[in-house]
Structures are given as structure tokens and as C-alpha cells.
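Hi F.,

I've been meaning to write this up properly since the lab meeting, where we talked about keeping a consistent format for the predictions we share between groups. The idea is simple: the sequence comes first, exactly as it goes in, then the C-alpha cells exactly as they come out, then a line or two of notes. No screenshots and no reformatting. I'm using this chain as the first example so we have something concrete to point to.
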Amino acid sequence: MSNNSERDHSDSEEDEDDLSNEILDLDAFNQLLSMDDDTDEDYEFSREIVQSYLEQAKSTFADMDQALSAKDLSKLSSLGHFLKGSSATIGVKKVQECCKHIQFLGKLHNMDGQGSVDEDEALKLIAKELKVGKEEYEKANEFLGFFYETDFTDQDAKEPSN
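Output, unedited:
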């Protein structure tokens, strides 16, 4: 019986590792964690950076919604570029990927940066990428909140919950 419980625990850890690897670029996230003081068990420095990123991303998504409503492709491209870089720094890879696509589409390029699309097609694809990006942001927010033992949806969350 102990073999089964050990295996179940191991499977659980593997599932958690798969989930974190799906949401985060672990190399980038580990670089962020390496900036924390070795004696800081709460990861205060990186937690504050992550919280700032999550607030910034939420605001940027709202700006993208407005730019999409205004059909402002240039603004969408610029916002996509901005959030792509922030997401890369934290390691939120699927948001980064969606933002890269939005950046290209805002310049009327295909999502891979090659070829071209017309304005209507670009706006339609941006709307889809924006929806996916927001969903991936929510997954990252939940995962990072779990990691830091903090509810990042609460704007006043500064300390880990106990």
C-alpha cells in the first residue's frame, strides 16, 4: 500500500510540474526567483514583481479591448509588444505568445510575422487572440497565487496568506 501512496504522491508532483511547465517558462521564472534573497522564504522581491506584472497585464488587456473597439491596429500592435516583453520576463509563455500574435496582426502580418492579412481579418484574429490571452492570464494568475500563497486578485494583497 505504501508503494501506491508513494506513486500517487509522485504522480501528483508530476501533474503539478506539467501544469507549471504548461503555464510558465520555468527557466525565466527560475531566473526571477534567483533574484530573491536566499533567506527570504516568502520570495518577497519576486512576488512584488509578479504582482506588478499581473496588475499591468490586467490594465493592458483593458487597453487592448478599447483599441480593438476603436479598430486601432497600431495601438494593438504596440500594446501586444509591450505585454509580450513583460510576460517573457515573468515567464508567462502563453500570454507572451498571444501578445506576439497581436503585435504581428496589428501590423497586418500573419500571426507568425510572415505574409499579410487584411484589416478585417486582423481584427477578427486579434479578438480571438485577446480572448485566449485573457484566459491564459487567469490561469497564470491562479497558479502564481498558489505558488506565492497570495490572492493576486485582491489588489491589497501584499503579504502571503497563512
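Notes:
The first helix runs from residue 2 to 23.
Residues 1-13, 155-162 have pLDDT under 50 and may be disordered.

If this format works for you, I'll send the rest the same way.

G.
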